[in-house]
Amino acid sequence: MQIGVTVQSIPQSMKDRMRSIYVPDNIRILKYPCHSQAVEQNVKLVTKASAAVCDNEARDGFIRSRITSRDALPKFYTKNEYFKVL
Fold it and tell me: SS3 of 16, please?
């Protein structure tokens, strides 16, 4: 036998009590973009680093070297800038 609990079945007083227990009043949640292309690229980089090396320091070095090499490459903001170089 399975009992389903939905948000509607929890009384408001219980919701308030749970919120007071689990969420402190002085918490500050910062809003960061989490679904941007930059975030996806960094997640991909960390995933590659995890697959390539095992040690924490080696992983950190792997990530830092990749970021450094990317910074050395020219940045193009439009297709026109890219084709001027070619």
Answer: helix
Contact 12, 25 (CB under 8 A): no
Rounded Cα–Cα distance for residues 48 and 59 (Å): 9
Give the chain's largest Cα–Cα span. Answer: 69
Identify the CA nearest to 50 among candidates 40, 41, 39, 62. 62
Instruction: Give pLDDT tens digits for 28-83.
Output: 777 777 778 888 999 999 999 999 999 999 999 999 999 999 999 888 889 898 88
Alpha helices in 1-86 (DSSP H): 12-22, 37-52, 56-72, 79-85
Q: Distance of CA 33 to CAs 12, 36, 41, Å? A: 31, 6, 13
Residue that the structure tokens 């980089």 belong to: 45
